[in-house]
Amino acid sequence: MRKIPTIEAVGLTLCHDITEIVPGQVKRRAFKRGHVIRSEDISVLLDLGKEYIYCWQDDEQLIHEDEAALALAKSAAGEGLIFTEPNQGKVNIVADMDGLLQVRADSLNRINDIDGIILATLHNNRVIKRGMVAAGTRIIPLTIEKEKLALAEKVCADEGPVLNIKPFRPLRVGMVTTGNEVYKGRIKDGFCSVISQKIADFGGSLIRQVIVPDSSEAISNEIIQLIADGAELVLVTGGMSVDPDDVTPSGIRKSGAEVVFYGVPVLPGSMFMLAYHGDIAVCGIPGCVMFNGITSLDLILPLLFAGERLNRSWAVGLGHGGLCLECPECHYPVCAFGKGS
């Protein structure tokens, strides 16, 4: 690139976008790359603090910031993602579908360890909607060595795209509601409406809710029957604490499900149980789900609907970021809750 005094630049072509920032009001592209500078542009450029501008000179060893960012976005974006045209040196990677955003954190770190390249993403296992920005990439200088870009592209080629979106499956959900007080009609069940809304957000449908007394045998029988009737996910609500009549964990075990974990380092929602009947998840849901807007269930459901097979080591990792601050106005998932997983 050639550095040219702005007052001598009439007729020359800008080789990069120039940004205008008005503190607290606006940040925008004032001049686009490729703009041919006119005499009336000189005072504007000087007002923007641009006493010099750069003009492009071909160099076989270097690549322009726009082309570099676009190339990296193409390599990093996997299934369900598209990318924008460069603007002010940045390219956004955007969701083209609803689903679970998955980020290869190790690959991301290797790319960001290459001097002059940045790729910033949302957190791994984030629910994402079509049209949301999932990541942004750019290079720090106006040009970068082609060798450095090649290193970043190789990370994606060797390990797969850094970002993918897994679509949610429209699971058929069966619910077993436990508790003598509900079974005998002393109180009205509070779980069904809450759970129905949460599964509907992922395209799931409730095929049946059954209410049973505090009997591990009854719980076990209903889990088995729901699976036989086509349930692809079974949620067992209530009876998850340590009281003598809280028998949901033993009922899940008695059904033949293999328990992955009972207890998860998340507050609220620590008394969560996850087990599997083959490929079908069976979840023991603690009572806090009725009262707290966001709990461990909200961290686990998206992965189950995306078809992820969860294990104990994943659950252990939830502890980092697993404390909900229970803010007066909830902004989840735009907060730190669950983001350490």
H/E series? EEEHEEHEEEHEEEEHEEHHEHEHEEEHH
Low-confidence blocks of residues: none
For the sheet with most strands, the description reads: 6 strands, mixed
- Give me the CATH fold name of the largest domain: Molybdenum Cofactor Biosythetic Enzyme, Chain A
Radius of gyration over C-alpha positions, nearest whole angstrom: 27 Å
CATH-defined superfamily of the largest domain: MoaB/Mog-like domain
Return the CATH architecture of the largest domain.
3-Layer(aba) Sandwich
Q: What is the C-level CATH assignment of the largest domain?
A: Alpha Beta
Q: How many domains is the backbone divided into?
A: 3
Tell me the span between the first and last alpha carbons: 44 Å
Can you tag this structure with a few keywords?
341 residues, Molybdenum Cofactor Biosythetic Enzyme, Chain A, 26% helix, single chain, alpha+beta, 6-stranded mixed beta sheet
